[in-house]
């Protein structure tokens, strides 16, 4: 890879020193570029995965519009001084990406200093702040014109379509791996009816389409050293969606006591305090605009997201690991099993989860009404 040539296409101070692979994302290739004078800001260079994102120019247009909207809102009352927004660096021909001769798409962001992304949540404070950050993110995008945004991956969280893709992989069985996953397929198929509930609410028009992040894995937040969220990152999938998508996918990564790809299934348990803290943070930011049906949809998503993630990992396993980056040949299978185990645990405690979401939403709404009425009194 000729990094010097790629970097030269962007409008930046070119006196850069090291460039190194960065982060633990499953989709794009990320590199950190350090400035020769270490006190000057560095950059984050990414090769956007164009097998996953078929229309990168449209995706980059989404990111540009969304970051512009977020920046304009930051000057308003909702934002805090701690918050930052990703800054795209433009290229010399005035775009936000560089399309190289080999067909790759490159983009660059300003590197946000003194931050970390967290794969495994460590404290209730982090979980609360994470919930609030994703909630504020949805709130800030509430008044953006939804029609400006492209669907960067059509039907990304459409469980019906995801199940069709799995069924196709089972039928074609291109790697002859089906024989290893008979019990996993059975577990998934037993639950299809229940898992379609959220999609049906959407199809019946009971929950509104809003602008959502759609990839709210906890490591898509950058924290500063005070355990506050500095920035919501990984904006490739920001597009029209349902608020429950963001809530469910975040809870999937927070509530699990083990990593997403844990091999030892006995390590997978529920961390209820982290779930509760995230939910409180999220609802503090969003309760004022969520409808009753949206609040109900949140608990459905807590079950749906590990399920959908298992369906996606299993599909990729059967197809021969063509979508997610894998570190070894059974990686997608191990991920599938871990997500199904998490789902089992969530099903056991579902009543408590549902009750907590509903009670917290009522409390958050009441305290919001009190705050507003005392502010206007
Ligand atoms: P992927 O789609 O592959 O997950 P991300 O956009 O999430 O890629 O970036 C991968 C990692 O790079 C993140 O988890 C985070 O640690 C880091 N990162 C991304 N953007 C920035 C930034 N602007 N400043 C600092 N670190 C960043
Ligand atoms: C991918 O890009 P990353 O690693 O944040 C995936 C998510 C999955 C996640 C599972 C565009 O997210 O949907 O939930 O892996 N992103 C895309 O770890 O498919
Ligand atoms: Mg990411």
Task: Summarize the structure in words.
The chain has two domains: 7-110, 2-Layer Sandwich (Phosphorylase Kinase, domain 1), CATH 3.30.200; 124-371, Aminoglycoside 3'-phosphotransferase, Chain: A, domain 2 (Alpha-Beta Complex). It has helices at residues 3-8, 56-74, 124-140, 159-172, 182-189, 192-195, 197-203, 243-254, 272-286, 292-319, 331-348, 350-376, and strands at residues 16-21, 29-35, 43-48, 98-99, 105-110, 210-212, 221-223, 229-232, 239-241. The chain contains twelve helices and nine strands. Helices cover 46% and strands 11% of the residues. The protein is globular and about 55 Å long. The protein is α+β, with helices and mostly antiparallel strands and 377 residues long. The structure holds adenosine-5'-diphosphate, 2-acetamido-2-deoxy-1-O-phosphono-alpha-D-glucopyranose (GN1) and magnesium ion. The site of 2-acetamido-2-deoxy-1-O-phosphono-alpha-D-glucopyranose has 12 residues, from loops.
Topology:
Blueprint: H1 3-8, E1 16-21, E2 29-35, E3 43-48, H2 56-74, E4 98-99, E5 105-110, H3 124-140, H4 159-172, H5 182-189, H6 192-195, H7 197-203, E6 210-212, E7 221-223, E8 229-232, E9 239-241, H8 243-254, H9 272-286, H10 292-319, H11 331-348, H12 350-376
Antiparallel strand pairs: 1-2, 2-3, 3-5, 4-5, 6-9, 7-8
Helix pairs in contact: 3-8, 3-9, 4-10, 8-10, 9-12, 10-11, 10-12
Summarize the structure.
The protein is α+β, with helices and mostly antiparallel strands. The protein has helices spanning 3-8, 56-74, 124-140, 159-172, 182-189, 192-195, 197-203, 243-254, 272-286, 292-319, 331-348, 350-376; strands spanning 16-21, 29-35, 43-48, 98-99, 105-110, 210-212, 221-223, 229-232, 239-241. The structure holds adenosine-5'-diphosphate, 2-acetamido-2-deoxy-1-O-phosphono-alpha-D-glucopyranose (GN1) and magnesium ion.
